[in-house]
Design brief:
The protein is of the alpha/beta class. It contains 7 helices and 11 strands. The chain is globular, with a radius of gyration of 18 Å. It binds cytidine-5'-triphosphate and magnesium ion. The site of magnesium ion has 2 residues, from loops.
Length: 234
């Protein structure tokens, strides 16, 4: 069985307000993107497709893939305008895989164990996504900030990556959803939920598996790294 990781790094990081795209910002001397690539390198996946911005391929090749000795990165492809365009480019490059694990390059704290758990789960259930139960109460509002509903907290999850699928299933779901003029999906499972009749299975990731999105996330990331290296108080 062939497992391919598709790691996404083609975003512009507009919410980060930084000149350098957030996936290339330095975290304890190493680019954010290198952390998740290293986790996949150490894992049992067979190959990694790196999806990056146009004109960023050569930077990624020399400064990340070669510098950190990432031998499993078989291809670096250019992404697209929206995340789902980038995913589809990655999926095309992953042709011939049995399973794909789609991961945000802006989530440096994915671990080998999490990847292992996801690979195991997707063999039994063909759509498996990592997330965590929410800690806060969540409310659904209308466009005027009036509360419409409060779902029961034990059934509400925040969704992370990796998201793993049988290759044929996710390729078909994306191919169909991209034909829609109002495609508004924000994660990969949404494509399967809207197109296929296959249930999407939730598995627990970690509260540490944060996505670097706004500047304070870098502070959290630095604290998490200090803890990992045994010098932090967390
Ligand atoms: N991504 C991508 N291609 C895009 C948009 C996003 O590959 N067109 C990637 C990002 O690089 C990131 C992941 O998808 O690793 C999650 O997206 P997000 O956190 O939204 O990143 P950005 O789109 O870069 O940030 P923002 O939404 O703040 O502009
Ligand atoms: Mg975005």
């Amino acid at each position: 069985m062939k497992y391919t990781a598709v790691v996404l790094a083609a975003g512009k990081g507009s919410r980060m307000n930084s000149k350098v795209h957030k996936q290339y910002l330095m975290l304890a001397g190493k680019p954010v993107l290198a952390y998740s690539l290293e986790a996949f390198e150490r894992s049992a996946v067979d190959g990694i497709i790196l999806v990056t911005g146009e004109n960023e391929e050569s930077y990624c090749r020399t400064e990340i893939v070669e510098r950190y000795g990432l031998k499993k990165v078989t291809e670096i492809v250019a992404g697209g305008r929206e995340r789902y365009h980038s995913v589809f480019e990655g999926l095309k490059a992953a042709a011939g895989s049995d399973y794909v694990l789609i991961h945000d390059g802006a989530r440096p704290f994915v671990t080998e164990e999490m990847i292992q758990k996801t690979m195991q789960a997707v063999r039994e259930k063909s759509a498996c996504i990592v997330g965590m139960p929410v800690k806060d109460t969540i409310k659904i509002s209308d466009c005027e900030n009036h509360v419409l509903d409060t779902p029961r907290r034990e059934y509400v999850w925040t969704i992370q990556t990796p998201q793993a699928f049988s290759y044929g299933l996710i390729y078909h779901a994306y191919e169909q959803i991209l034909k829609r003029p109002d495609c508004q999906i924000t994660d990969d499972a949404m494509a399967v939920e809207q197109i296929c009749k296959v249930p999407v299975h939730l598995i627990e990731g970690s509260y540490q598996n944060i996505k670097i999105t706004t500047p304070e996330d870098m502070l959290v990331a630095e604290a998490l790294l200090r803890q990992r290296s045994g010098t932090g108080a967390l």
